[in-house]
Specification:
single chain; Immunoglobulin-like; 2 domains; four-stranded antiparallel β-sheet
Length: 238
């Protein structure tokens, strides 16, 4: 909950300053306040998803949005702000979140919330409805080539996305299934990691392992601290 608490605190301080800095009612300041609320809502949702993606309670999103909605009604001199929200519950979302880390080389951690905001006062009347979607997804493609005996060269290409656009990762860890035990690829004596700087990463390593069933898994934290992973069976390189 530390990440979420810090997000809430920093966002609340900004909202407080915007709301209290009015010298009369100015349209630009009202616009700043509404924009700050939109950005703050996204920060709260992002922080909540980061917590949930690493094993936090699924109720974290609702609880933090409740705290956020209560806070937004406390600080504004031009009128009474009211923020309400609804967690997405249509498939594939449950209670606003979707965490799906499959064995087909694709993984996704996502949150989706509908938000309604109103601000009414003596000289201002603002109504705003918008959806906030925060999604970190990962596509993993693995291939292998047999070098000599049972030694295999394994290449894993990973592509990271935020809301469908290429995004950078804070960390990328590749593991492989060694006869039922997951081992880190970067522990092998022959290992390389290439960061192309555009959300694409290439991990190559060699391992002495019999058979053709080579299963790899990639674990990623993006720059927002959201975690996602994907698992797949490597195909023989042509």
């Amino acid at each position: 909950m530390l990440v979420v608490s810090l997000v809430l605190l920093s966002t609340q301080l900004y909202i407080l300053e915007v709301g209290r800095s009015l010298d009369g009612i100015q349209l630009t300041r009202v616009g700043d306040f509404v924009l700050a609320l939109k950005l703050g809502s996204k920060h709260v949702i992002t922080g909540s998803l980061a917590n949930i993606s690493v094993g936090g309670e699924g109720s974290t999103l609702y609880a933090n949005l409740e705290r956020w909605a209560a806070f937004t009604g406390d600080f504004y001199q031009a009128g009474q702000p009211v923020l309400t929200f609804a967690l997405e519950n249509r498939s594939p979302y449950t209670n606003g979140t979707r965490v799906s880390w499959g064995t087909d080389g694709f993984g996704v951690s996502s949150a989706c919330v509908d938000i309604n905001f109103s601000l009414s006062g003596r000289e201002v009347n603002v109504q705003s409805s918008y959806a906030v979607n925060v999604t970190t997804s990962l596509v993993q493609i693995g291939t292998y080539r047999t070098l000599q005996g049972d030694v295999k060269q394994i290449n894993v290409t990973c592509n990271v996305f935020n809301e469908g656009k290429a995004a950078l990762a804070e960390s990328v860890t590749v593991l492989y299934d060694y006869y039922g035990v997951w081992r880190r690829a970067d522990a092998e004596s022959v290992y390389s990691f290439v960061d192309y700087g555009n959300g694409t990463y290439l991990v190559s390593f060699e391992v002495d392992m019999a058979g053709e069933n080579v299963v790899v898994s990639t674990q990623v934290h993006d720059l927002r601290e959201i975690y996602v992973e994907a698992t797949s069976t490597c195909t023989p390189a042509e």
